[in-house]
Amino acid sequence: MNQVIELLNSHRSIRKFTEQPVSQSQVNSFVAAGQAAATSSFIQACTVIQVNDTGKRESLSEWAGNQAYVKEAPVFLVFCADMNRHKISCDMHEAEMLSGFTEQFITATVDCGLFAQNVAIAAESEGLGLVYIGGLRNKIDLVAEALELPELVYPVFGMCLGYPDQNPEVKPRLPLEVVLKQDAYDDSSDKDLIAEYDHQVREYYATRTGGQKDMSWSEQISGMLQKEARPHMLSFLQSRGFLKK
Prior knowledge:
Blueprint: H1 3-9, H2 24-35, E1 46-50, H3 54-63, H4 69-72, E2 75-82, H5 84-92, H6 102-125, E3 129-133, H7 140-146, E4 153-162, H8 176-179, H9 190-208, H10 217-224, H11 233-239
Antiparallel strand pairs: 1-2, 2-4, 3-4
Helix pairs in contact: 2-6
């Protein structure tokens, strides 16, 4: 493996950070690397908001489920799917923008994911750690209001960045055969492969928690999918001008 692949395979979520500062020039370079990611039809539909204000950080931490690292991390970024600049572009040419299409929501959201992963890789390449914060969507309306987001913009997730103050193990991933199919979707062996993987994950959790967590991957997923998954999201997104057709 080359160094890039080794870096990708060594990713861990970091939730404890040292007090070592991250310079604005570093943040700028990471976000510039994000801009270099692939973008559907050159739409460039991701906007990043760096949240420095202490009060806003504390509110975001609370709304994300009281995740302390949101307010403690040296840097906190919010990645937003943004079709507002496209409306501005249409207005510049006196053209009516046809918005609200599901395809536009998908492409803008995918743009954000690709952008953010480039930011993550750039930061990790310089020795920083990070954790994504999907919990911002718990109170997404409050987040959007606090960040003064206009219509056609929504916060997809946040990211804590800083120098790691912990050294967790790399979490094992699904067997390659489960996620890489050849020519067609064949899941005939997936149940057996997932069962084997469950043992690996159970051992990982036991080691990480000193035996306090005894759970497999399939148990975790089956438990999660018996609960509602932020049912407020559809009405919120429609109120922002997304997913109307």
